[in-house]
Design goal:
The chain has twelve helices and 17 strands. It has 385 residues and is α/β, with parallel strands linked by helices. It has two domains: 209 residues, Response regulator (Rossmann fold, 3-Layer(aba) Sandwich); 147 residues, Response regulator (Rossmann fold), CATH 3.40.50.2300. Helix 3 runs parallel beside helix 4, helix 5 packs across helix 6 and helix 7 crosses helix 8. The protein starts with 7 loop residues before the first helix and ends in an 8-residue tail after the last strand.
């Protein structure tokens, strides 16, 4: 299934003069993404693997949003720089494996996508012997390596950013609160590792099943542990789709006062107005990409496609922009070039790939004041020392 909205990009540029302010950083230079100067070489072909045909709720719309973003980035690079070859994965590893092989047969020099970790792993394995790299939208650090690179913001990245800021701010004794789920266990592990790196002591932890009853039952246990340990901070790994709404409401009611205890969140707290109104999150800390760049992308997307982009849509733009940066400088899609230490700048801010295929994103630290997001520690503007 191909995206019925893709032609809107070209139509938009015919009727609107658009100045693109986003720059893509590569090495010591900045390259404008709107560069319609053509060259005589063939375009770099990108195999774009998307969850079209998936039975998982929301995947079809997500696939459309990812493709829209990828086409927007390709258009910004200029005519003839990159060519997107779109393949449906149905959200299945076997289909993704076949799609990746077909993309390479069709001339793809690199794969962008798939979405989930098991599907991405299958796609990467299918083309590893062809020396083709895969930039997946996943944020699961356990799958990266060899020819598989992560575009998603990882728990490791967020945990280290928050722990570093927390240490500098004097909040060095945490309670760790997490759900007993696969994601919760991964989050727990990354928080513990980040705390150790940043000389933060975790004085205790409380876990719960992801049910309303279990979350409610955990609240007095958390309050009692907070009082007995005298921890100065509480790290919540849950997001707005999980336990965060209940915890953010009930913990202050049970005496865990956000004026006395520093609330810290591993998830994004800016995803809904309801979350921003939670009493426990007022004055709390969470990490997010450069909000100025993200806002510009969202605004452009809405103007062109008449809809709000999916929260993950910008990853597709970043992926195409990274590939385009290398293409514009005459570089191939090798692992060495992808791992350049200066990184790249896309619509989520700076990103650079680590040797193990995971990534480091430059994240801002924000707080919530009077139900509104306020950045208190901006993201890095350069990875240079």
């Amino acid at each position: 299934m191909l995206n019925p909205l893709k032609n809107k990009i070209n139509t938009f540029y015919k009727v609107t003069t658009l100045v693109v302010t986003l720059l893509l950083t590569a090495c010591n230079s900045s390259i404008s993404l709107l560069n319609n100067k053509s060259d005589n070489s063939d375009p770099t072909k990108i195999g774009l693997l998307l969850p079209y045909g998936s039975k998982i709720r929301g995947d079809e719309q997500l696939a459309i949003s990812l493709e829209n973003s990828a086409r927007l980035a390709a258009n910004d690079l200029g005519y003839g720089k990159v060519q997107l070859l779109v393949y449906a994965t149905e959200g299945k590893p076997k289909i993704a494996s076949l799609a990746a092989k077909k993309a390479v047969q069709d001339g793809a020099e690199i794969i962008l996508g798939p979405l989930r970790s098991d599907v991405a792993t299958a796609a990467a394995r299918a083309v590893v012997n062809k020396n083709i790299n895969v930039l997946t939208f996943s944020n699961n650090s356990s799958i990266s390596g060899k020819n598989l690179f992560l575009l998603g913001t990882t728990f490791d990245n967020i945990s280290n950013r928050l722990a570093g800021f927390s240490r500098k701010s004097g909040a060095k004794e945490w309670l760790l609160i997490y759900p007993r789920t696969k994601e919760g266990e991964i989050a727990k592990k990354t928080v513990i590792e980040a705390a150790a790196k940043n000389n933060i002591t975790i004085l205790g932890s409380v876990s719960f099943d992801l049910t309303a009853e279990s979350i409610v039952e955990a609240v007095p246990e958390i309050a009692d542990l907070m009082e007995s340990t005298q921890s100065d901070s509480i790290m919540l790994t849950s997001n707005s789709a999980g336990a965060l709404p209940l915890l953010g409401q009930l913990l202050p009611e049970k005496g865990v006062d956000p004026k006395l205890v520093q609330y810290i969140g591993l998830g994004r707290w800016d995803v809904s107005k309801e979350t921003l109104r939670l009493p426990g999150l007022q004055g709390g800390w969470f990490a997010l990409p450069n909000p100025t760049l993200a806002s510009k992308f969202s605004s452009r997307y809405k103007t062109i496609f008449n809809q709000t982009p999916h929260p993950l849509a910008s990853l597709a733009y970043d992926g195409v922009a990274i590939i385009g940066s290398l293409r514009l400088r005459g570089k191939n899609m090798s692992s060495k070039n992808l791992k350049q230490k200066f990184g790249f700048l896309g619509v989520n801010g700076l990103i650079r790939f680590a040797d193990d295929g995971s990534n480091e994103r430059a994240l801002s630290i924000a707080t919530i004041k009077k139900n509104k997001v306020k950045v208190i520690d901006p993201a890095l503007k350069s990875f240079l020392p």
